[in-house]
């Protein structure tokens, strides 16, 4: 038995706060984790309980209460020991057990809250740690990226600089090579030029020497020439002297001739003398001839000398020309030498500039190397900070792991607590009875006739019956009734829903739940079930249940639960099913035909071995949001209202069945649940005599009465644990068969109209409800339902 609740999902914190018995547990007590075995207080509870009155409210004065797991289990297994017919003792024992269970539930709720709180705290710290961790990680990453970017930039820079450097070096080398080559060439040419210059100098020397020799020669020649000229002059002088001599000779000759003539005259005169004179003449003639001869030889010599002079002059001219030529050549060489030295200077200047650029490059390289060193330093620093961040990150990770472990631990504890809670919750519900009856009296409406008549409904104020009793006065007779809960005309929709919210939670926990609204037409069944959707505070149980289920499923989603919801809505009219969500709505004609069993759609009801009901051709919608359900409810309401106008108040003449199937899977714990929530707005329960129906209307009323009595037959058969439960006697009971037996939970609202004219019907309704309320089908069935439950659990 202890295993049967283990695959139910945990409840939402919302639902947890609600107390099923209607007693608010405001004062929370500090509690410790169940199962620690450190608690002893159960005996205290027993003691307190034995001394306290049976009033449930006294629980609040009990002080600090704590339970151990064993105590809880013992409490769960505790059963009334009184004799079968000792109802009072049984009731007392039951009340006692209920009280302790409530205490236990309360204790558990507190433990649960502490867990939830702690879980929240852990979650918050986990989130913050995660955030911190994420932030650190992000920071580290960005830092790393930045540094990587800087490093790569620097590397690129360094590479480009290296390249540049290499290029520059190669360029420089090439230029240096060129310069060296040029220099070498120039040196060579210079050497050659110097050699040439030297040879030219030598030649110059030689030429100079030659020139000097030539000059010497010229000088000697000139000397000679001078001397020759002198000689010539002397010769000319001599010649002129000779000529003068000749003149004188000639004058002497003339004188001699004269002398001769004088002599010849003297000859004649002096013939004797003549002869001597002739001798003298002859000798003068010889002298003259000699002089002539001397003169001729001198003339020849002068001519010779002149020709020689001519030769010497020519030679001198030649020498001068040659020396001029040589001087020209020297000038040329000198020019060449100048050019070479200029080039040499240029080359030297260029090599100097190259050296300068080289040194500049070296400086730049040094600078870059320094930069690289700085960058390396920076990188090292960054690496250090990265490692620091890494260690921090590791620490955070470690912390995160620890927090996760703690969270998992807490979650585990929470799960265990949740299981225990479910067990307790279920036990409480079972102790209360799996069929419960709530009575709701609607307010007097303006249309009601009995406005000014005496009130027919009264609510007893005794402690016993407070909130649970209702008295109906009919012709002066007071008929007292007690139910699990009575809502007077002032009860709001919210208050009503608050009381059933635990049942709705049960559907989410994997139970099959049926909530019926029973009563005569106009007593407020539809108002209770559907309410007025247009006014939020007047929403009925159906929309409120759906809201709760969606909210709770979302809360449980955090614990790994995933839910799938399916909705179907149908009407049973004259034992015929009508699909309210069908896209091609059944027309009046079809309904009439359906009524006579000739409809195309069969809507055959089948149940599989897992207790799942299937209605053929019925529209089933998967719903994921409350919005979708709202639209479906609208569609259904419209569909019903269509029927209402066309089919003569059909809505009161048919049973409306809203079914929500909930399949939940928890992937982390591999738990599965499958719950069903049926909300049924029954057809008006007024008796035939009152409706005064005939014909079609009579048939309707008969069908309704038949199905309602089939419902009560089923309930009573279940209560009596009869072997045969007549589920098949009506469409409604057959449809709800899996949800009416076993460990399913059933709640019946009996709606009462305060209109005095309805007193008779109200009395009937209250009597019927009281009979149902007397059924204790929950507790005994617990023993026998294990198999059924197990089959349900095994299939989820
Ligand atoms: P039924 O479905 O049982 O035939 P209805 O739900 O249609 O009855 O109620 C009949 C009328 O009474 C409706 O106008 C409804 O709004 C009103 N009514 C019923 N219950 C309440 C209530 N608790 N408070 C206010 N009005 C109510
Ligand atoms: Mg109605």
Structure description:
The chain has 796 residues and is α/β, with parallel strands linked by helices. Strands 1, 5, 6, 7, 8, 11, 12, 13 and 14 form a nine-stranded mixed sheet that branches. It has a three-stranded antiparallel sheet with strand order 2-3-4, with helices on one face. Strand 7 and strand 8 form a beta hairpin. Helix 2 crosses helix 4 and helix 7 runs antiparallel to helix 9. The longest helix is centred in the N-terminal third of the chain and has 346 residues. The radius of gyration is 73 Å and the shape is rod-shaped. The N terminus and C terminus are likely disordered. Bound molecules: adenosine-5'-diphosphate and magnesium ion. The site of adenosine-5'-diphosphate has 14 residues, from helix 6.
- Average pLDDT for all residues: 78
Q: Unreliable runs, pLDDT <50, ≥5 residues?
A: 1-62, 586-599, 643-648, 778-796
Strand content is 5-15%
Bound molecules: adenosine-5'-diphosphate, magnesium ion
Number of helices: 17
Q: Summarize the biggest pleated sheet.
A: 9 strands, mixed
Report how far the terminal alpha carbons are from each other.
17 Å
> What is the general shape?
rod-shaped
Radius of gyration: 73 Å
Structural class: alpha/beta
Report helical residue fraction: 55-70%
In total, the number of strands is 14
Keywords: ATP-binding, Coiled coil, Cytoplasm, Cytoskeleton, Microtubule, Motor protein, Nucleotide-binding
Subcellular location: Cytoplasm, Cytoskeleton
Family: Belongs to the TRAFAC class myosin-kinesin ATPase superfamily. Kinesin family. KIN-14 subfamily.
GO molecular function, one term: microtubule motor activity
């Amino acid at each position: 038995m202890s295993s049967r609740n283990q695959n139910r999902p945990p409840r939402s914190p919302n639902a947890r706060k609600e107390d099923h018995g209607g007693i608010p547990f405001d004062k929370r007590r500090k509690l410790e984790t169940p199962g620690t075995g450190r608690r002893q207080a159960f005996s205290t509870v027993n003691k307190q309980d034995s001394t306290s009155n049976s009033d449930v409210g006294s629980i609040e004065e009990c002080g600090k209460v704590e339970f151990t797991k064993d105590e809880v289990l013992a409490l769960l297994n505790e059963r009334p020991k009184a004799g079968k017919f000792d109802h009072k003792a049984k009731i007392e024992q039951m009340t006692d057990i209920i009280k302790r269970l409530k205490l236990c539930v309360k204790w558990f709720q507190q433990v649960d809250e502490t867990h939830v709180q702690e879980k929240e705290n852990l979650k918050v710290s986990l989130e913050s740690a995660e955030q911190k961790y994420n932030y650190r990680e992000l920071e580290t990453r960005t830092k790393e990226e930045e540094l990587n970017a800087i490093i790569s930039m620097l590397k690129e820079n360094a590479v480009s600089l290296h390249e540049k450097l290499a290029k520059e070096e190669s360029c420089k080398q090439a230029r240096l090579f060129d310069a060296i080559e040029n220099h070498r060439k120039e040196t060579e040419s210079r050497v050659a030029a110097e050699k040439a210059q030297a040879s030219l100098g030598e030649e110059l020397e030689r030429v100079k020497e030659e020139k000097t020799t030539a000059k010497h020669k010229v000088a000697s020649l000139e000397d000679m020439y001078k001397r020759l000229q002198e000689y010539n002059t002397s010769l000319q002088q001599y010649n002129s002297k000779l000529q003068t001599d000749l003149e004188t000779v000639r004058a002497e000759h003339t004188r001699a001739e004269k002398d001769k003539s004088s002599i010849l005259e003297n000859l004649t005169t002096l013939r004797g003398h003549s002869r001597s004179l002739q001798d003298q003449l002859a000798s003068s003639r010889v002298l003259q001839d000699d002089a002539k001869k001397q003169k001729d030889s001198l003339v020849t010599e002068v001519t010779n000398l002149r020709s020689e002079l001519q030769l010497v002059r020519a030679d001198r001219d030649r020498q001068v020309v040659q020396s001029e030529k040589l001087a020209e050549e020297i000038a040329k060489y000198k020019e060449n030498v100048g050019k070479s030295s200029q080039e040499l200077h240029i080359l030297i200047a260029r090599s100097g500039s190259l050296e300068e650029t080289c040194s500049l490059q070296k400086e730049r390289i040094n600078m870059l190397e320094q930069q690289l060193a700085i960058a390396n330093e920076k990188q090292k620093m960054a690496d250090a900070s990265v490692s620091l961040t890494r260690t921090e990150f590791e620490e955070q990770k470690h912390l995160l792991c620890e927090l996760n472990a703690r969270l998992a631990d807490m979650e585990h504890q929470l799960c265990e607590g949740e299981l225990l809670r479910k067990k307790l919750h279920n036990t409480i519900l079972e102790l209360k009875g799996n069929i419960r009856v709530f009575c709701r009296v609607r307010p007097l409406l303006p249309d009601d006739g009995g406005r000014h008549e005496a009130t027919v409904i009264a609510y007893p104020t005794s402690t016993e019956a407070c909130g649970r009793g209702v008295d109906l006065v009919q012709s002066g007779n007071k008929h007292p009734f007690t139910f699990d809960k009575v809502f007077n005309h002032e009860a709001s929709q919210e208050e009503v829903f608050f009381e059933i919210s635990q049942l709705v939670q049960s559907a989410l926990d994997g139970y099959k739940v049926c909530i019926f609204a029973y009563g005569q037409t106009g007593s407020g069944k539809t108002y209770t079930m559907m309410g007025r959707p247009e006014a939020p505070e007047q929403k009925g149980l159906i929309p409120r249940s759906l809201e709760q289920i969606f909210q709770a499923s979302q809360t449980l989603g955090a614990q790994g639960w995933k839910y799938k919801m399916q909705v179907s809505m149908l009407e049973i009219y004259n034992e015929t099913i009508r699909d309210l969500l069908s896209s091609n709505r059944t027309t009046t004609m079809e309904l009439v035909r359906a009524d006579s069993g000739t409809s195309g759609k069969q809507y055959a009801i089948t149940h599989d071995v897992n207790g799942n009901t299937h209605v053929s051709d019925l529209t089933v919608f998967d719903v994921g949001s409350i919005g979708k359900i709202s639209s479906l409810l609208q569609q259904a309401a419209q569909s019903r209202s269509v029927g209402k106008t066309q089919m003569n108040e059909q809505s009161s003449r048919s049973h409306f069945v809203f079914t929500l199937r909930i399949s939940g899977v928890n992937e982390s714990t591999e738990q599965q649940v499958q719950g069903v929530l049926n909300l049924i707005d029954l057809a008006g329960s007024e008796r035939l005599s009152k409706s005064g129906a005939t014909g079609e209307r009579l048939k309707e009323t008969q069908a309704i009465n038949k199905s309602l009595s089939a419902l009560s037959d089923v309930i009573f058969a279940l209560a009596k644990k009869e072997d045969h439960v007549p589920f098949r006697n009506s469409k409604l009971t057959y449809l709800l068969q899996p949800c009416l037996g076993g460990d399913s939970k059933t709640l019946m609202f009996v709606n009462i109209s305060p209109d005095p004219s309805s007193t008779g019907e109200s009395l009937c309704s209250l009597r019927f409800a009281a009979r149902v309320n007397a059924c204790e089908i929950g507790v005994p069935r617990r023993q026998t339902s294990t198999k059924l439950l197990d089959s349900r659990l095994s299939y989820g």
